[in-house]
Amino acid sequence: MSGIALLTVWVFHWIFSGAHLTQFYSVPVALAALTDSWRGGLTASVLSSIAILLGPADASVSNRLLSSAALFGLGLVVSFVNDRQRRRKTTLRTQEQLGPVYERAQGSFEAMKRVERLSAIGQLSAGLAHEIRNPLASIAGAASILKRNEHLEPKHAKCVDIIASECARLDRLLTNFLDFARPRPPHLRTIYVDAVLDNVLALASHGLRGKDVQCEKRIQPNLPPVECDPEQLEQVLLNLMINAIEASSDKETVTLTAGTEDERVAVRVIDQGYGVAPAHIDRLFDPFFTTKEHGTGLGLPVAHQIMTQMGGTLLAQRNSGRGMTFTIVLPAKRGTE
Prior knowledge:
By secondary structure, this protein is an alpha+beta fold. Among the domains are: about 5-90; about 190-330, 2-Layer Sandwich (Heat Shock Protein 90), CATH 3.30.565.10. It has seven helices and seven strands, in the order ααααβαββαββαββ. α1 (about 5-15) packs across α2 (about 25-55) and α3 packs antiparallel against α4 (about 155-180).
């Protein structure tokens, strides 16, 4: 039996005992239904009906029975409405709690699919790279021998130069394939990222290739150390900086920032360029997908794979205005001087 229902009915019965105010029993019925769900409403209805039927004979039996039926109906209606509201609130609260869980599960599922694709394409790339590199080296060697001929006609010499340059380009592409297929394991060390960022900024400034793009650095003071492979971290950041410079127009700025976020160190490369279409954001780390005219589509997948091996993450997002932001996140190393 509901304690709230019993208490409210007893109080109202004590107050209105002997009075012609039996309709006021609707108050404890409604109160019990609101505070104690349908059980409270039903219990209060039963107790109120008993109180009315056993009270002073100030009304006919039919009126008492009608009042009792009305109280039962009131209890059921209020309980139904209240239970519906409670279920709705519970559903909304559950959805709010499960929303982040679903997003994390979806992210993990996408990451698993990407790993499977990377593994399959990596094996294929490794096999093709080895099969192609040997005949390519023979073609490049033959072109080098032909180029030594002093009596070679200019148009033939130009053809030999094209062969040599294209062989060099294909060799670089094969190197990217092999780096993607079998990236070397990271040599983890505890370092401060400031020196790495300085090197990346200096190298990126030399790679402007005549573009009037400003490169600037914003680093939070007293950054904690991180555990990473400094050479691979520099490789990833330099790749991101070069991409940002290529995507920028003259008079625009590429910014390299670093700061702490929730026990982690976040390094960002921010540009003001043409950006990436929203439909392509999720494909940026897929092998062979590229938005560049002459891109291979392996730079970002290799960078993503390197960061995963180091225990970090690489994220991409569109800026609210123009351009893109690529973020590298590494766990901060605590307790290290």
